[in-house]
Amino acid sequence: MRGQEVKECTAPHLFCYPAQSNFSGRKYPLSYVKGIQSQQLYPACEHRGRWYVLLDAACFVSCSPLDLSQYPADFVPISFYKTFGFPTGLGALLVRNEAAEVLRKTYFGGGTAAAYLVAEDYFVPKPNIVSRFEDGTISFLDIISLHHGFETLQKLTGSMLNIQLHTFGLARYTYIVLSCLCHSNGKPVAQIHCDNDFQNIAEQGAILNFNLLDCHGRTVGYSQVDKMASLFNIHIRTGCFCNTGACQYYLAISNQNVKTNLHAGHICGDSIDLIEGRPTGSIRVSFGYMSSFEDCQNFLRFVVNCFVDKPLILDQKRLTKLKSAELMESAASYDLASIPNGQLGQQNGQTISPSPERITPSEDAVSEEEKNNGSSHTLTNLFIYPVKSCASVEVTEWPLGPQGLLYDRLWMVVNENGVCLSQKREPKLCLIRPVICLASNTLQLQVSGMEPVTVPLETSLANSDLRTSQSKVCGDRVQTVDCGEEVSTWLSEFLGKPCRLLRQRPEFQRDMKFGPGKENCGPTALSLVNEAQFLLINRASVSFLHEHIADRYSHQLIQRFRANLVISGPQAFAEDDWSHLTVGDTQFQVIGRCGRCQMIGVDQKSATRSQEPLRSLSECRSGKVTFGIYLAHQSARNTTAVPVLSVGARVIPRISESTDKP
User: Fold this and answer.
1) Three-class SS of residue 626?
2) Which of 602, 593, 604, 597 is nearest to 618 (CA)?
């Protein structure tokens, strides 16, 4: 509307804004509430008609008190999950009585009607606003738990004001130390996204948002940081936090960048953290009433141990300035004098860096002869993994099928809800040893101390006893066949929980997703793999990593990376720059590098977890945790011959025209 129409408009207006940004923790003035309502704050408020204010307080009230008598917003959404950490999905919409009359629903559900007819368009809502808007049965069991939440909060903290002082003090301490950390060359370790120096509790909440930088000033991908943090039991949030506006503002992401990133394969919530070196999101650390000073120290130690080029340097000029800054609103501050010069401090007599113990190199270390074996590459090992996340089967010669190596990852173990299990949550899967018997057309599963169980390799859908179902693998819907009760009972007994074995349906076609590096790759059929048909690792790269972690690591590196093809070669990580390769007479296209997670920390012989080798992989590759490359088979034209890979075959790589070394 414009001109005279604007002046004559008497429709109600709604102004919405957050009390606190969930991205950066910035607090917006609560005085805006009365300013908008009185039509004095914003030029558009001159429009006739009443102005209502919706104050989004979900993030704000988790750690700060809110007095609605002083700031009388008309509508206030809050989240109990953000306040208590339980229950999930429960919140409330606070509505001022005088504002309730403008709320009208365009639909109705059970329990909200005073009367309605089926044959006519006739519906009368209940007069009470609560009854009018709460459709169906409310979550009364979750609501009961809120009483205990408020009671616990009061007993432990005394008041929301105490929580605000406590959490702001933790956030400020972490901000000061993190912002002063520097690499050995003086470059900052972190780029912090905020609009202040954490000096005013009325302007900043208990949230710290940042990106980590390497010693060259390049951004470390947030998904890599998240993977490393999980090894140290540190829980962080990464991405854009459903706040695209703030993400674009702080990271300087243009509208065109968002569209280009989508075309490059990045969608909200995925792990693509860098595109052409620019971050697609950031890292957020949030503090609550249960957070402690030790949590801050543990987080900062984690950053120093994993992402700082040693020796650590502290920006003393900035540190002195921030430590001496006067805090407003009498905010609590932890003893910043505990930060000594040049290092992050000591606790209980122990410094940040662990004291490594030297161990004997593993049996999987690559020999000097192998490392210096000229410029040729050779296929040294061939592995298939019939059951996803279970042990490998090593072969010397094996045929290729339409989806990769024949029988590779055609089966998977799922829980009672049909969710695929992996070693991330069930490390004991690695102790299950599959055995393929082509002569009897069977797959046998073996575990120490139990009788083996057998299922057919091929599944006939004509068998009426078989149950078909839909499952998901990496977001893809896959059609599967249940392998029966006998193997289900066997798996459930070993894993100690209800489980079933599913096989991918023979006629089901699952295609590789489009994404970076896959543009020129035609339709590629996949089994139950995560990303691509094949995974290749280089023994020279394994040797390099082993030497890096030999001081604090044991053995079996090759098995932990769960590759299909293992090759020998003279140069570590040379495979990162390949675009194509030929193994014997079989041609492959390189799809991309394999991003690693905490699953490589599972010892494939004992099912125990450790921080290695992911921790050292991140250190020696400047924050990146890629190891190995994904491949897709390029079928030869005008031939019906079945390709076969053999150990000892020569590997001939082709270098990519555009390389992007880590």
Assistant:
1) strand
2) 597
Mean pLDDT of 24-47: 86
Beta bridge partners of 435: 444
Identify each DSSP E strand in 447-564 by its residue range. 453-456, 468-473, 476-482, 499-504, 534-538
Among the listed residues 9, 242, 437, 474, the single catalytic one is 242
CATH class of 4-126: alpha beta
Cα end-to-end distance, the chain, whole Å? 54
List pLDDT tens digits, range 136-164: 888 888 899 999 999 999 999 999 999 99
3-state secondary structure of 404: strand
- What is the residue-wise DSSP string for 269-304? TSS--EETTEES-EEEEE--TT--HHHHHHHHHHHH
Q: Which residues pair with 208 in a beta bridge?
A: 285
Half-sphere exposure of 444 (CA within 13 A, CB side): 12
Pairing of strands 442-446, 397-401: unpaired
Distance, CA of 483 to chain centre:
32
What 3 state SS string does 169-197 have?
HHHHHHHHHHHHEECCCCCECEEECCCCC
Sign of CA dihedral 558, 561, 564, 569: negative
Q: 368-380+515-655 domain in CATH 1.20.58?
A: no
Q: Which two tokens stand for residue 4?
A: 């005279």
Whether 594 is catalytic is no
Q: Which helix (H) or strand (E) holds 149?
A: helix 140-157
Does 160-338 match 368-380+515-655 in CATH topology? Answer: no
Is the CB of residue 23 less than 8 Å from the CB of residue 250? yes
Q: Look up the pTM and report it.
A: 0.71
Closest residue by Cα to residue 535 from 594, 597, 611, 469? 594
Q: What confidence tens digit (pLDDT) does each residue in 55-69 have?
A: 999 999 999 999 999
Architecture of domain 160-338 in CATH? Alpha-Beta Complex (3.90)
Cα–Cα dist 584/331, whole Å? 69
Residue spans of the domains in the chain: they are 4-126, 160-338, 368-380+515-655, 406-504
Helix (H, G, I), strand (E, B) or coil at 539: helix
